[in-house]
Amino acid sequence: MLIAAIGAIAVGFAVISHSAGLQAEMGTYRTALKLTANVDPYQEITQEMLTPVEIPQKFFNENVFLENLEEVAEETGRTPVSATYLQKGALLQKSMVVAAPDLEQGERELAIMIDAETGVAGKVTRQSRVDVYAAFQPGDRQDACEIRVLSNIEVLDVGELGSEVDEETGGTNSVVPVTFRLTPEEALKLGHAEAFSSGVRLGLVSPEGGGDPGRQDYCSADQIAELEDQEGRPGNEPEAGDSAEQGADEETQESGN
Question: What's the chain's average pLDDT?
Fold first, then answer.
């Protein structure tokens, strides 16, 4: 009995020591906000949709997580709304929240997630003018094409860096929400491109002006046509003098043999 009691005490001390070690390793805790409901794009986010959760300081990134929803309203003077569709249970990130649109009559504000490395690269900022390109993979009725969906449109805002899960690989990609000022027709084109293309890129337009944007699309069929044009150019065919000289050389070679 005495040995069992001593063993129990030793185990208790070991558990307490282990818990204290874990607590020291985690450090203090920070408060993050967790969504209690699904949120549609550009829907107002209210305190009723959020519940506070404690996260160890070790895993809390101040540049990613939002501790106080009122920060957005204080910085912009406008109502905080969702930048894209938000799922219940997600921790609220700064990139998920934008200020409510500030538009003129007839205009639309639309945000899409752009690859942070290939689509933005830190050069597209608020009030930049950009072209939007979408890549479509080959299908039963179409070739692989790169299409300029929109030309010389205004960027209203570029959000905070976030992450997005790649459905094909299961990995994560760095993405940035980019918000545009659009007409209803332009908003429809951009929404279609984001939904059905394999990727959307931005082309930064010169401050001096967009100039003539040229052709709107480039497809795999165009590559074949260009290759055929190059092979069929007169410059690539042997000239008459060259053919005669080549024939004389072949005859000389046969006579020598």
Answer: 78
